Amino acid sequence: MKQRIITGVVAAALFLPFVFFGGLPFVLLTYFLASVGLYELLKMKKLTIFSVNGLLSLLFLWVILLPKQYQEVFVTFHYSKAEFGIGLILLLLALTVITKNRFTFEDVGFSILSAIYVGIGFYFFMETRSAGLVYIFYSIFIMWATDSGAYFIGKAIGKRKLWPEISPNKTVEGSIGGVVCALVVAVLFVLFSNIHATIVPLMAITVVLSVFGQIGDLVESAFKRHFNVKDSGTILPGHGGILDRFDSLLFVWPLLHFFHLW
What we know:
Layout: H1 2-21, H2 23-44, H3 52-65, H4 72-76, H5 81-98, H6 105-131, H7 133-157, E1 161-163, E2 167-171, H8 172-192, H9 199-227, H10 242-246, H11 249-258
Antiparallel strand pairs: 1-2
Helix pairs in contact: 1-2, 2-3, 2-6, 3-5, 3-6, 6-7, 6-11, 7-8, 7-9, 8-9, 9-11
């Protein structure tokens, strides 16, 4: 627990200034976090990012991540962001032939989907920051409340297993408790922040985000169980990897955008 607290404090001290400042430093931080996340996923499948196929996957991720304000770089070459992405997919498929199927079609599919999964989540992290700091903190705090509520309430009164094949410690009671805690945070945001929502719509949105955030957590648990690893990485001592910390938010940030809250 001591290690988790120390790591959390240090990570917050490094992370928050970038979030507050925004702009290019924040974009670079997001690229770094997403790149580490992709590295962790590829490593689970025993694929290395330090290879031709790994670098192509990384470039595909970077194309997905590129914010709107920087997309004029593609216009310079008379191509769109989507066209660059398609080109990289074709190169990854060509590698199956060049490597004589040592890099397989299955590996191509895993690499592409991994980049899309990580890329979409972190792309909407930047979109959420562009909408305003309040939405970043709203998303982080409701997921913190969901995780904490699910843990403590599940430990206190949890009896029915939520999804034992994927995450044996999670309970139905804990999951519901997490949603309730998230709703408390939503009410506080309506009362004490400048978030552009009234209480009833925000509570409805919060329920959906809390539930899907828990699904995001279970998705990451499913990955780790399938590949028989305890944590996605070791970059955050006591917490695991980047994906271990951002798994819920990778689902929450795109949904937050789709709800047109701002």
